Amino acid sequence: MSLSLPPLNFEYNELEPHIDSSTMAIHHGKHHQAYISKYIGAVEGTSFEQKKVSDVLADLNSVPDNIKMTVRNNGGGHLNHSLFWEVIGPNAGGEPVGELLLKINEAFGSVNEFKETFSNAALTRFGSGWAWLVVDSSGTLSVQSTANQDAPIMEGMLPVLGLDVWEHAYYLSYQNRRPDYINAFWNIIRWDKVTQFYELAKDGNTSYLV
Ligand code: MN3
Question: The whole model's pTM is what?
Answer without folding.
Answer: 0.97
